[in-house]
């Protein structure tokens, strides 16, 4: 055989890989191992097999232990590798043989457990069915909804186990437990007066209904709200339980859990999104040549998979068509579309301004006209309906704004001529801003009323003790009402809008009705509904510890309601979207909601004085004050270490080290990116350069 000359092969663009330190180290390792093995084999012909086994061991135990099917080799090469691996086991020590066998057994057990757990996955069959019938874009919404159900359930377990359960045990004296209420020191007596508006005597049915919808009355004194946990110290058996510290740590715990879980899920979506955006042709080839699952044997499952791939390819073709259309635009067309987009954005800003002003005025009016009458149970001057309307006015205005604004945005986005994926992102960002800003305006209005003090008595308490003796429960009630009203609106839209529209389209042959047709399943609107509700849950859990349980039940019911509505009253979007980019963007928007939830919670915990009449923090100036108070009870050495960590002398160097580490990883990522780009160039050259593809002569 005649091989290509060394000069020709040396001219290939792989020099940068051979210069890497890891490559040079591997060459030296292999050369040393090969020399020793050849010497042993030359002295003893029977040692040839041992040399091969030793050489395989030098490749690394982890690589050698990998199954042959995991290596990117041909069938013949995999057979030779399997033969070498089996022969190599004879020359391993007993410990390494046991280690390799145990590793294989463990991988097999984990694979079987993972396969079994997939059958226990919540709504697995339903989501696969939705994916096949309506595409991966709508399937991503239901998967996202399932994730929030699990997240809220874990948050509920955390809050119930650390806060609610110990309080119930101590108050009812279970397990030889007890509790103590320590009156606040150096606090004016009028600041500690709190008389919940519980129902007394004969109560009408509509009063219970009002309390159930608003969180007042009999619900105000239950474990649902902050005011129930007025406990300063607990003893379960002989162990003391610090409820104030547990309450604060549980709050930090569920926020940290949500942050880590969302980031972890976002990483996978970011990788898929990055690969797709970097090389769309590669994504297309993966769908055409490697998209089918050959393990499918059920005809229904095969049909669902076929429809899923069809929707994916349809999405790719739609985006390519729009890209070509954008590239072919003339200057006149660009000027027209840009002018139209500027005009539409002015309309969007006007809609947002109107929503914010309406919410602010409604909140101020409701607080000024409902708090006094509700506190004193004085409803003689206004009937039940008017009182209910005034009390729930902020929630109704916010819900109305959240319902109308997305409809306006969805209508306007059609004239801006964006791609389906970007259209959903822009609509989501607009709707996220209006929904989350609505919550911010509500909280700002509440806090302006809570912190407003015009007398010396009020200044002594630090907050408006007359209208808000337990202001944390008041905020919790507002978050509770927002969540309940949001759920009612979702039900009302499906029952009184979607189903009547479906009946008209089905049984009425009028041209206007048929022209309207069934409403499309708007992914952006539906995602915003649950992200808005989840943001309310994150903010309200501190003021209402059992709010995650309500959110879990709410999303569980919404899943089946949306599924029924999708199948019977909606139709898939005429312009399909891709699930890979949608999943990542949904999580990014959810992460924005979580980060915005940090702001009101941080202000409530560290800045606003805690209520002196209720709650576990009534003996502290703020909720955060329990942390330094607890640290002061630690031993001197540990206390000094913790205070040193919290000081500027530690924080500044720590921040600098973190910045250096961050810059290192940024530089490393840039180097990896350059290597990947060079490897891509080599893959392209394989098709055209004869130095790569010329056969041996």
From TrEMBL:
Chief location: membrane
Pfam families assigned: TMC
Protein name (database record): Transmembrane channel-like protein
Subcellular locations according to the entry: Membrane
Transmembrane segments: 147-169, 245-263, 342-360, 392-415, 427-447, 479-497, 584-608, 650-671
Residues covered by the TMC domain: 470-580
Region (Disordered): 27-63
Key words of the record: Membrane, Transmembrane, Transmembrane helix
Gene assigned in the entry: Tmc7
GO CC terms in record: plasma membrane
GO molecular function, one term: mechanosensitive monoatomic ion channel activity
Family stated for the protein in its record: Belongs to the TMC family.
Membrane topology according to the record: Multi-pass membrane protein
